[in-house]
Amino acid sequence: MLLHRTSIEDHNAALLAAHQRRLQYLRSEVPQVDDVLPLLTDLQIAIPSWALGTGGTRFGRFSGGGEPRSIAEKIEDVGLLHALNQSSGSISLHIPWDVPENHASIRSLAAQHGLRFDAVNSNTFQDQPGQQHSYKFGSLQHVDKAVRKQAIEHNIEVIRQGVELGSKALSVWLSDGSCFPGQLNFRKAFQNTLESLQEIYAALPADWKLWLEYKAFEPNFYSTTVADWGQSYLYVSKLGPKAFTLVDLGHHLPNANIEQIVSLLLMEGRLGGFHFNDSKYGDDDLTTGSIRPYQLFLIFNELVEGMDARHMNHAQDLGWMIDASHNVKDPLEDLLQSVEAIKLAYAQALIVDRKALAAAQANNDVVRAQEILQAAFRTDLRPLLAESRLRAGAALAPLQLFRELNVRQSLIKERGTTAVATGL
Ligand code: PSV
Ligand code: MN
Ligand code: MN
Fold first, then answer.
1. Of 140, 245, 158, 132, residue with least CA distance to 199
2. From the CB of 248, is ligand 1 less than 6 Å away?
3. Where is the Xylose isomerase-like TIM barrel domain (predicted)?
4. What is this model's ipTM?
5. For residues 77 and 422, is the Cβ–Cβ distance under 8 A?
6. What distance in angstroms lies between residue 323's CA and the mean position of ligand 2's atoms?
């Protein structure tokens, strides 16, 4: 389904007067709004190919229909999102859930939609049909060199695929670990994993990065070989300057202080990027900002402060990606909500009065510091986001337009209601 420019123009024309009223009020309240606009427009959030269909749980899956059946259709879906918000300018593929075949045509289709390819993700947490060795007892950590070799080869193949598509990063998440005490020698598992990662790292092109994700538990419930940010940091610092830690917001033990983790990884130059989602209990993969929007804001507060201190380019120097799963929502609507929540938290962090905050911190003025942060967090910056979309040629209210145009119904008509499994 293609979205016509006129649909966006008509929609914007109908909402323009109300939008301008809100923006004018915001301008009178928040003097920095115009400085923040270009930064907001630049921030693009990558959409994971696996979040375009219904995820389900291990208890069941309820397909909403019209799900993409091929990489081309996944690109079209992300193209739709990008046309609506001009903030989802890239797609992240997961191999072999995605099997890119005709690279040139996939690349040109993506370009037609104004999209590029973000990090490519490898998968050594499932056995694939016809695969020689099983990953039941791990992949890069495995006690058997032949299994490790197979997993290393897979990662190198993913890099090759990514090179064909113009990606610049390999994202590695390992489910490796153990289910019971005694199953694993932790030190050997670490060393095997490190050696395997070193072989993968050696195959990275000069301008590529390797992002190593961590996760506290699941599917292994006793130990995980890259379980937390400290362990990921240990690997990436041993690997070399092209290796970084990737923070997935759902991968921590309950109540972990993620903003502090972010601050320190950034300080050490080892923060690679994010898998955004939200979490109530564990790796819930819920819509970003749906459960703990204040935590999201506090993370962005550290990001803005830390990136500015290191003179980093906000939009380009980290990987900004969503990792979500949808059980009851329309996946595309959910992704629109997530992108909006991420950019809102970013905008709020951009208007924090940094000088005043630094002064409050220097004076141990705890109350003032809290007031400063919460003043930014409680400012409704939605008109600012809408303005940045308007200027970029996107819709003032993307979700509303998605519904007005009956996008899902058109997709169902085009693709049918057959469920297409998209992996985890
Ligand atoms: C694992 O839970 C994870 O967060 C990794 O990023 C995987 O690649 C993705 O989810 C699979 O859905
Ligand atoms: Mn993830
Ligand atoms: Mn996850």
1. 140
2. yes
3. 103-286
4. 0.99
5. no
6. 5
Structure tokens at 167: 């990606």
State how far the alpha carbon of 87 is from the alpha carbons of 207, 321, 344, in Å.
Answer: 24, 11, 12
Q: Is 387 in the pocket of ligand 1 (CB under 6 A)?
A: no
As given in the structure block, the two tokens for residue 302 are 């550290």
Tokens of 375: 């003043």
Residue ranges covered by each domain of the chain: 5-415
| Cα distance between residue 141 and residue 101, in whole Å | 30
Cβ count near 145 (within 10 Å):
12
Ramachandran quadrant class, 380 (left: phi over 0; alpha: psi -120 to 50; beta: rest): beta
Contact between 125 and 139 under an 8 Å Cβ cutoff? The reply is yes
Q: What is the pTM of this model?
A: 0.97
Q: Are strands 223-224 and 177-178 parallel, antiparallel or unpaired?
A: antiparallel
Cα of 264 to ligand 1 centre, how many Å? 23
Residue 283 Cβ inside 6 Å of ligand 1? The answer reads yes
- Across the chain, which has 424 residues, the per-10-residue mean pLDDT values are 92 98 97 94 98 90 92 98 98 97 96 98 97 98 98 98 98 98 98 99 98 98 98 98 99 98 98 98 97 98 98 98 95 98 98 98 98 98 98 98 97 85 49
For ligand 1, the distance from its centroid to the CA atom of residue 173, given in whole angstroms, is: 7
> Quick one: DSSP state of residue 197?
H
Asked whether 424 lines ligand 1 (CB < 6 A), one says yes
Q: Residue holding tokens 């420019």?
A: 5
